[in-house]
Structure formats: C-alpha cells, structure tokens
Design a protein that fits this description.
Elements lengths: L11 H11 L11 H25 L3 H41 L14 H49 L6 H31 L8 E3 L1 H17 L4 E5 L8 E3 L1 H18 L5 E9 L2 E8 L29 H11 L3 E6 L5 E8 L4
Parallel strand pairs: 2-4
Antiparallel strand pairs: 1-3, 4-5, 5-7, 6-7
C-alpha cells in the first residue's frame, strides 16, 4: 500500500510544538547552547522586564511598573548567584588544579560537573595533565635507562685511563691526553649518578634512612675533609659553629652530607675567583640554619629564580649537569626543610639550608 503523506501542521499549538522541537537538544544553535545561551536568555528577560516597567511607568501604571522593576532586580540577583555557582567556583577549582600541575603533580585531574563550556575546559585541562604525566614518565624512564647503560663504559674508561697513568713510559702529550680522558670520564660519571639520583627522587623510589643526626659533628667532618682538598687549589674554607653546639635533627646523615658537599662543590666551582668559602651554622627558632657563602661574582639576577630548576645551567662559563642543586632541594624538602639561593650583601653567592629541629 502506498505510504500516507504527512499532513502539514496547522494551528498555533502545533506550530509552537514544531518550534520547540527545533530548538531542543542537538537542534539548538551554537549561540544558544551552554552557558552563553543561558546568559543570553537571562539578559533578554531582564531587558524585557526593564522595558515593560518603563512602558508601564510612562502610561501611569505605577503598580505594574514597580512589579516588573522588582522582577528585573530579582532576576539580576539570581543570575549573579547562578553565575557564581556555575562559572566562578568551577573556574577557581580549575585554577587550583592547574597550579598543582605546574608544581609537578602531573596527572592531577579536576572533577567535571556539567557538559557546558566549563566542562569542556575541564576536559582539556585533564587531558593536558594526563599527557604531561605520560611524557614525564617516559622522560624519566629514558633518562634512567640511558644512565644505567652509560655506567659500564664509563667505568671501563675510567679504570683503563687510571691504569695507563701508572705507565712511566707515557709522557708528553700522550700523558696529558690520558689525564684529560680520566678527568672527563670522572665528570661524566658524576653527572650519570646525579641523573640516576634525580630520577629516583622524581619517581618516588627514593627513601630516607632517618635517624638522629648530630649536625655539629657532621659539619666538622665535612669541613675537615673538604678543607684538605681545597688547600691544593689555594682556596680557603672557614667553618664557624656556635660554642654551645647545635641541636640534633631527624634526618638521613648520608644524604645531608651529600647536600653539603654538593653545595660546597658549587661554591668552589662558581666562586673560585674569590679564593674563599665560608661554612657556618646556627640555631634559629625551630630550625637550624646552615649557610655556605663564596666570594666570587655571585649569581646573575636573571638566573636566581631558576637556579634550583632541573637542567638549568644559567649563563655562567662553568659546566655542569644542571641537576645537582635540584637534587639537593628535593632532599632538603624531604627532610621538611628549605633551601634558598641568594647573593650576599658583600658579594658572592649565599646558599642556605634550613632544617627543622628534632622533636623530643
């Protein structure tokens, strides 16, 4: 049988139904969807109430004019409350998530409440966070894998270069070349160890062996060990400790020693021209403050905000991996302390480590 042809709709109610069906769901124009559509509708309603109130007032209908004016004000206030709940509060939450991501909490996700413009922004930020987390994980795995692979050839190069230096027949440029190979291999070995240490810190595979640490004894040991090494380079290391001693702290003695040695290495490397490095410590309230100052050129003002960032080398001539200070900062943070870098008033760089005093 032939299909019946649909009759065209007629009548006001039928036309209204067709019009509503056209603007429902996916048929709604983009300009009327989501928050922008809701805000447009509210703005039109407020404008209509205001115009109606003005017309009523012009025709002498004061009661109706006041009624529509009150409606306009009430709708305006309600729309502001709605805007705060639907737009302002979610955006503030997205700002907190973005700050956590910027601080290194890659993979942090924000909760999506509605399918509107803010919901789309939430999806975009969550997608960005996940991809950054994946990229960071791949980078850490690559750095760790390459560092492990470099260990074996570097050990062989260092061992054979040191063995060759025992050969007295090796003289002149040949001996000088082997000495350079040995020094560069040692430098690369230190960089590889720093990379491995850093990846363990970032991946959460780093654990502190906590115990009671006698900071005064630790600093004196570092002073005795390092001052002997610096004498060969004609650099003076002075150590200043309070006569009453220092309070103990809870921490990992080996890691804290690593932090001090790394900071002293940087002081010697970048402040060599000053020929003097000062190491001091003193209790300050609930913290013990350890300071290392050199008398070199100091840190360039544009580099100061970034010196603790990983792989940041600054504009100096000295070479380095750019992660030694980042590792120190991570270790100090794990101890609940703070590491700061600044320029001293009389010249030179000043690195400060503040560690919380051990609680009894």
């Amino acid at each position: 049988m032939p299909e019946k042809e649909e009759k065209p709709v007629s009548g006001p109610s039928a036309r209204l139904s067709v019009l509503l069906e056209r603007f429902r769901g996916e048929n709604l124009p983009d300009s009327l969807r989501g928050l922008k559509g809701a805000w447009l509708a509210v703005s039109c309603a407020i404008a209509l109430f205001v115009i109606t109130a003005v017309v009523c007032a012009a025709r002498g209908a004061g009661g109706w004019a006041a009624f529509f004016a009150v409606l306009a004000v009430a709708l305006l206030l309600l729309s502001n409350v709605w805007f705060r709940e639907r737009v302002t509060s979610p955006i503030l939450g997205l700002g907190d998530t973005a700050r956590r991501i910027a601080e290194g909490s890659y993979g942090s996700l924000a909760e999506k409440f509605r399918d509107d413009e803010v919901g789309s922004l939430t999806e975009a930020i969550n997608d960005m966070s996940v991809k950054i987390g994946e990229a960071s994980r791949v980078q850490s795995e690559f750095v760790s894998s390459v560092s492990h692979e470099l260990r074996t050839p570097l050990t062989a190069i260092t061992g054979w270069s040191e063995t060759l230096l025992y050969d007295e027949a090796l003289q002149g440029d040949s001996r000088r070349g082997i000495e350079i190979i040995s020094a560069e291999a040692s430098r690369l070995t230190v960089m590889v160890e720093e990379l491995l240490e850093f990846t363990r810190l970032r991946d959460g595979r780093f654990a502190l062996d906590l115990g009671t640490v006698d900071l005064a004894a630790l600093i004196e040991e570092v002073d005795f060990t390092y001052s002997e090494l610096l004498r060969h380079d004609d650099i003076q290391l002075t150590c200043s400790l309070p006569e009453e001693g220092l309070p103990c702290v809870t921490g990992d003695a080996a890691r804290l020693k690593q932090v001090l040695l790394n900071i002293l290495d940087n002081a010697v490397k970048y402040g060599r021209s000053g020929r003097r490095v000062e190491l001091s410590a003193a209790p300050e309230g609930e913290y013990v403050r350890i300071s290392v100052r050199d008398h070199g050129p100091g840190v360039a003002p544009e580099d100061l905000p970034h010196v603790k960032e990983r792989f940041y080398k600054g504009r100096g001539k000295e070479r380095g991996s750019g992660i030694g200070l980042a590792v120190c900062d991570e270790i100090v943070s794990l101890h609940g302390g703070r590491l700061t870098v600044a320029n001293a008033a009389g010249g030179g760089a000043l690195v400060t480590v503040e560690l919380p005093v051990k609680t009894q």
